[in-house]
Amino acid sequence: MKEKKASLLLIYTGGTIGMKMDPENGTLCPFDFSQILDEVPELGKFAYKLDAVSFDPIIDSSDIEPAIWQELADIVSRKYNDYDGFVILHGTDTMAYSASALSFMLEGLAKPVIFTGSQLPVGAPRTDGKENLISAVEIAAAKDEDGHARVPEVCIFFNNRLTRGNRTTKLSSDEFRAFASPNYPPLAEAGISIKYNDSAIRKPSDWNSALEVHEKLDTRVGILKIHPGITLEVVGDILCGSSTRAVILETYGSGNAPSKQWFLDIIRKAAGSKILLNVTQCFSGSVNMDIYANGKALKESGVISGGDLTTESALAKLFHLMGNLGDNKEVKRLLTENLRGEM
Questions:
Q1: Rounded to an integer, what distance in angstroms lies between the CA atom of residue 229 and that of residue 235?
Q2: For residue 5, how many other CB atoms are within 10 A of its CB?
Q3: How far is residue 242 CA from its own chain's centroid?
Q4: Catalytic positions, please?
Q5: What percent of the chain is modeled with pLDDT above 90?
Q6: What are phi and psi of 201, to 5 degrees?
Q7: Disulfide engineering: 167 pairs with which of 2, 178, 184, 322, CB 3.0-4.6 Å?
Q8: How many H helices and E strands in the chain?
Q9: What is the pLDDT of residues 205-215, one digit of tens each?
């Protein structure tokens, strides 16, 4: 019996990877993404069915908003039964935010949704775009011996590494190694061959369950980065503002913040009506508010530990939970649970 060839949908939102140099004026312009095989002919060597759709207009990643995540989730939902996997080409600046958001919006995912992009345009002589795209496509098409997707997760592939989307953060603006997953190992690494870290990959409890898409998002979230010299006025404006339902506190080390009375008073006041989530400013590591007195003071004041959540993932998780739950108490409870491998 002839094996059915894998079918993949490439979704181009925008970003450097889809640009090419205009020979007349030297500016970068988007190319017609339906002609992707002309730009990356190596893709034609795969025995896959490759289709491509492009946002119109394309979106600079600095302009990414939740409405774009909803549109991406809708495309995946509508095309879910038609393709074996999805590769989303996206600008690097907000890729970790988008991958985190999609991980929560797509529940029961049994197929790969892989974000990739590049630091140099795909037409540039030293581009990283071709290798990123080719490997992302190969991984999205990969099946295990039972015919199931090898990596049924929302992921980011960049610079030879596949990482869980909601565990990834942007590391550099000018190196090919643009992303890192500081608190979770790579799901796969691409060298001469692609080596999968199967023990780290999440699998669905039921491969035949229907995909459930959660498009409702509540974006009333603020972020307060703790810093020396922070003032009562700044803290009060962010924590007690009427337009926020939740605030992410980016704290020092293992979850510490000032112990001044005015600061704790504002925390307690805000925690009475808002959701306060503690994540660390450190590149790696976790919040543990039981280690130091300053951390314990936050915990006793009503702040919730975000564990080892990245800021991108914390934001996406809050958007998702708040969009689907009106009860802050239930949101707080679920913030401490590992929903999509994010913590």
A1: 11
A2: 11
A3: 28
A4: 16
A5: 80
A6: -90, 130
A7: 184
A8: 9, 18
A9: 999 989 999 99
